[in-house]
Amino acid sequence: MIKERNTKQKQIIYSALCTLGHPTATEVYEYVHEESPTIGRGTVFRVLGAFAESGRARRVHLRGSDERFDATTSPHYHARCRVCGRVSDVFSTELAHFLAATNTGDFCAEEAEVEFRGICRACSAEKK
Ligand SMILES: [Zn+2]
Ligand SMILES: [Zn+2]
Question: 18 C-alpha vs ligand 2 centroid, how far in Å?
Answer without folding.
Answer: 10
